[in-house]
């Protein structure tokens, strides 16, 4: 314990940075859980996708979407969700699975749909990278 105190005293900036990063991680995880957005593995997402009242929204860039996407997915740029038109607002009434390339941008899109009133939103954990790694089918445009 004495060594830890000595280390913190000698490296206050490093210790402060560590505490700041730790608090940021805890806050981010807490905020994610409070948002009500679910994270689904590819196996869990299959049942979600097969629901007739669901829609798969892929927010990947069009070039990535055209290389391969989940069958039936609709490609929507993130900006189109934040500046919602009638079609996007209609999608917010459905059960939504939001997908992106690696699972990072989908959270922003899910938050955007939440602001539009969507109540049943899930994110594909790991994005298309994990979907492909787990060898689930894709279609190309």
Automatic annotation (TrEMBL):
It comes from the Bacteria. SMART domains: RHOD. The keyword NAD does not apply. CDD domains: RHOD. Pfam families: Rhodanese. The chain crosses the membrane at residues 12-30. Keywords: Membrane, Transmembrane, Transmembrane helix. PROSITE patterns: RHODANESE_3 (PS50206). Residues 50-140 form the Rhodanese domain. The keyword Transmembrane helix applies. This is Rhodanese-like domain-containing protein.
């Amino acid at each position: 314990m004495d060594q830890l105190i000595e280390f913190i005293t000698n490296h206050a900036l490093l210790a402060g940075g560590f505490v700041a990063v730790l608090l940021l991680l805890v806050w981010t995880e807490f905020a994610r859980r409070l948002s009500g957005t679910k994270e689904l593995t590819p196996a869990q997402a299959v049942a979600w996708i097969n629901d007739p009242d669901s829609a798969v929204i892929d927010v990947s860039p069009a070039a990535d979407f055209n290389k391969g996407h989940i069958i039936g997915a609709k490609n929507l740029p993130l900006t189109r969700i934040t500046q919602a038109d009638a079609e996007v607002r209609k999608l917010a009434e459905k059960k939504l699975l939001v997908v992106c390339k690696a699972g990072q941008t989908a959270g922003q899109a899910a938050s955007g749909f939440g602001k539009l009133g969507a109540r049943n939103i899930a994110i594909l954990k790991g994005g298309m990278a994990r979907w492909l790694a787990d060898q689930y089918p894709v279609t190309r445009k």
